[in-house]
């Protein structure tokens, strides 16, 4: 058998996994909904709303709608596949069964890129809200900003130390145990939602429809400056959508918990679809309230736009409360994605595409401690030295690749195995799955050319690793070599 044709059988996808490589089943649907909401509602609404408004103006609301529609198509496909294959690994596992090992490697590598960068991006967003707290504690500006930040007195920052600290703190919590971290997550998600409700309530009395004119000052898609080279900045509704797409995904992290879910056929559907629906409503309301209370070109310059808006409205104490809520609750996003990243790494190692020793589960906690801590270190390094915008855009590229693979997997399996029982079926799948793929391709096209190049470079590195190791060492490759 050629490595191009190696595929996992759906019916045996978790067969042959011994206790040392088996995750504990400790989660139910409330944990999954909280995991999804915790992942989705975070840096995107607390921080990227401002950056998106700077690109699209009030049209950022349309950007949220477009990104949300693409994610909705992907969410429906995820719900079908996660209940069809209730195993850890998310899009990587689905691609392995539908399209084979090389595609699965590409998708798994994209997920590693996505989840690690999301953890880093949210750590940077958290640091922006915690900046004043660390400064009051005596930390120098050199240690509160990365090298990309120009300091008020001249020179540049050295390292974003708060981002490094929160990355490692969340990794430590996850290493303790899945259920323990999920319970903490549920509490922090509640804090985060209450803070957003307070923000909207304070913005509504000063809501000004005039702030929505002109609605799309930069059009649907454009370059600045006009006629410049391939690295010219893209602006407009689609440029903002390709960035704040980051704000919507997170429901895919729920699918990585499939193997640790007590009743995956019921709970995964509720977790994925429920969290996506709830968060779409939250985002549209908060974005509209933000623009109604302050002009987009004003709050777009702030790294903490919701806090900035409340301060301009003379709600100083409430601004501090929302900032504190962000400091307390944004780690739920890091937790959800670091959880997902460690599980993707874990399953790829269990399949032999990465060193199998990395898939060992701690006997006491039931978690892959080594992979969790390694994820924390990678996130800490990236968040300590890179900007939020660059990290978020590159994370989006990896996510879009995974979403495309999920849509393709639904199409392939529907055509190849149309009669296989499905607990949840993607509605109008011949429309929804292709629409999700095409939407993701357009969002990828809308990303900066620099980001697209970095994505290509990352996958060239991944291809070298697969050729040098995974292609020969995978479990399916070893099975081919076995006698008989």
Automatic annotation (TrEMBL):
It comes from the Bacteria. It is a multi-pass membrane protein. The keyword Transmembrane applies. Keywords: Membrane, Transmembrane, Transmembrane helix, Transport. One of its GO terms (cellular component) is membrane. InterPro entries: AA/rel_permease1. GO terms for molecular function: amino acid transmembrane transporter activity. It holds the Pfam family AA_permease_2. The chain crosses the membrane at residues 32-55, 61-81, 102-126, 157-177, 184-207, 235-258, 270-293, 318-340, 369-388, 394-415, 427-448, 454-471. It is found in: Membrane. Signal peptide: none annotated. This is Amino acid/polyamine/organocation transporter, APC superfamily.
